[in-house]
Amino acid sequence: MAVTLNTKYLGSFIGKDELGAMEPAVTAAAKTLHDGTGLGADFRGWLTLPTDYDKDEFARIKAAAKKIQSNSEVLIVIGIGGSYLGARAAIEFLKSPLYNSLKKDTPDIYYVGNCIEPTYLNEVISLVEGRDFSVNVISKSGTTTEPALAFRVFKRLVEERYGKDGAKDHIFATTDKARGTLKELSDTEGYETFVVPDDVGGRFSVLTAVGLLPIAVAGCDIDALMQGAADAQRDFAAPFAENDCYKYAAIRNILNRKGKQVEMLVAYDPAFALMNEWYKQLFGESEGKDNKGLLPTSCIFSTDLHSMGQFIQQGSRLMFETIVDIKKPKKDFFLEKDEANLDGLNFLCGQNMSVVNRKAQEGTILAHTEGGVPQVILEMADCTEHSLGYLIYFFEKACAVSGYVLGVCPFDQPGVESYKRNMFALLGKPGYEEAKAGLEAKLGI
Ligand code: PA5
Fold first, then answer.
1. Range of the domain at 195
2. d(Cα 400, Cα 408) in Å, to the nearest integer?
3. Residues 210 and 232 in one domain
4. Is 379 noted as a catalytic residue in this protein?
5. At residue 242, does pLDDT exceed 90?
6. Last residue of a domain, one of 220, 241, 272
7. Is residue 202 predicted with pLDDT exceeding 90?
8. Residue 75 forms beta bridges with which residues?
9. Protein residue closest via CA to atom 15 of ligand 1
10. How many CA atoms lie within 13 A of 320 on its CB side?
11. What pLDDT score does 146 carry?
């Protein structure tokens, strides 16, 4: 198994029988999920996606990725939330957070439409000057303001560079199969389109074209990614006693009931930073409703031990940590001994740097356990596509099961609409006139 749960450090926080006591609730939640009898049941397509996906489209994704690799030095990925985080997280984890700066034979990838900040947009525009580029615009609804606005800008840039006709070779849209402004616009303009399935919500969509096209453009093996997820689909259908995914869901729930309000996802690898962001959206949007839910937060260690370490060790006892313990780095570094040893560091040397990182991890786990912070360990075999696909499915299923155990709908996000309503009203979108006056009065403008 590419990801396994290690509960070794939980003994002082969770009693011997407590995990077993959760079995009926978790098993019932998993049955609800599989039977499609729970809230949001129409959005369970991700559950079988690794084995039941559109193979023709998968081949088109690979072909489009090859085309972009051959006609572009830069790919601009336009999307936000679930239409953005998964692709970026996978690329940075599998390749590098320094992907764009490293020597490679695949295009640089920049992400826009995930904010409305003009400086950043200007900077990315400057990065395509004089370079061939393509655009992958991703929006399930096809109407989200942030990516729609960025696409308007980049569509014009592509047309200015390649002409209306040439744009068809440089613009790829991932959206609903039939509905929405983006689908209509793409059909009118003749862009190749890819589908976000109806039954897969944004934050569960990384293994659809939403994530797969950019991930393939970066040169990652999307067959192996899907195979990893397929293996997880099989493994995490097992009964509770043999199912680490269900046990993880149970542990989160036990700790939450014992007063922990925060789960901090931790990895000792900066390449995991965007995976942390993906996890935060997955769990935050799925569980954070009806005044319930663990607050998902994250750290990269040892980096953040020098900023957050004090709080974790001795601050408010709000949290537990879930450590993604990556067993093997992509590339190790041998630390040579130094004859003079002027810095006194020879005790660290004559071994690989990953050993030092591991000792930092082991020491921190013990210190944080003693500090009253439960440590849940997810052991991940390596940094391959297969293991990542496995981990993605592990988290998605754990999230859905956790949500049902918590008694919320894990597949909706009604709270996200509030800011949109206010923003549209303040910007004078037709139909929001009344709300505008009320909001302006509150703002005193
Ligand atoms: O998980 C979600 O549903 C959201 O994060 C969406 O993915 C995000 O709001 C973007 O929506 P869309 O893909 O419709 O542009």
1. 47-220
2. 10
3. no
4. no
5. yes
6. 220
7. yes
8. 109, 134
9. 139
10. 24
11. 96
User: Residue 417's pLDDT is what?
Assistant: 87
For 65-98, the pLDDT digits (tens) are 999 999 999 999 999 999 999 999 999 999 999 9
420 in active site: yes
- Residue 356 identity (one-letter amino acid): V
At 201, the pLDDT band (50, 70, 90 cuts) reads very high
- Which residues, listed in sequence order, are joined to residue 320 by a DSSP beta bridge? 263
CATH code of the domain containing 400: 3.40.50.10490
Contact between residue 167 and residue 189 where contact means Cβ atoms under 8 Å apart: yes
Report if residue 263 sits inside a domain.
yes
Q: Is 159 a catalytic residue?
A: no
Structural domain total, the chain:
2
Residue 151 pLDDT more than 90? yes
User: Could you give the CA distance from residue 399 to residue 294 in angstroms, rounded to a whole number?
Assistant: 11
Active-site entry in 57, 92, 146, 285: 285
Burial 259-288 (b: 16+ CB within 10 A, else e): ebebbbbbbbbebbbbbbbbbbbbbbbbbb
Peptide bond into 354 cis (omega under 30): no
Q: pLDDT exceeding 70 applies to what percent of the chain?
A: 100
Claim to verify: residue 190 and residue 120 sit in the same structural domain:
yes
Residue 159, classed as helix, strand or coil, is helix
Residue 84 CA, ligand 1 centroid: distance in Å: 8
| Within-domain flag for 441 | no
> Does a structural domain hold residue 153?
yes
Same domain, 387 and 251: yes
- Residue 439 domain-assigned (yes or no): no
Is the pTM for the entire model greater than 0.85? yes
Q: Are residues 78 and 214 in the same domain?
A: yes
Strands (E), 199-355: 262-267, 295-300, 319-326, 334-335, 351-352
Q: Are residues 295 and 372 in the same domain?
A: yes
pLDDT band at residue 127, thresholds of 50, 70 and 90?
Answer: very high
| Gyration radius of the chain over CA positions | 23
The C-alpha atoms of residue 29 and residue 250 are separated, in whole angstroms, by 10
Specify whether 199 is located in the same domain as 290: no
**Residues 309 and 384 placed together within one structural domain of the fold:** yes
Alpha helices in 37-180, H assignment, sequence order: 55-71, 85-94, 118-128, 145-166
Taking the centre of ligand 1 as the mean of its atom positions, its distance from the CA of residue 81, in whole angstroms, is 5
Q: What is the pLDDT of residues 364-422, one digit of tens each?
A: 999 999 999 999 999 999 999 999 999 999 999 999 999 999 999 999 999 988 999 99
258, 420, 433, 440: which is the annotated catalytic residue? 420
Q: Are residues 112 and 248 in the same domain?
A: no
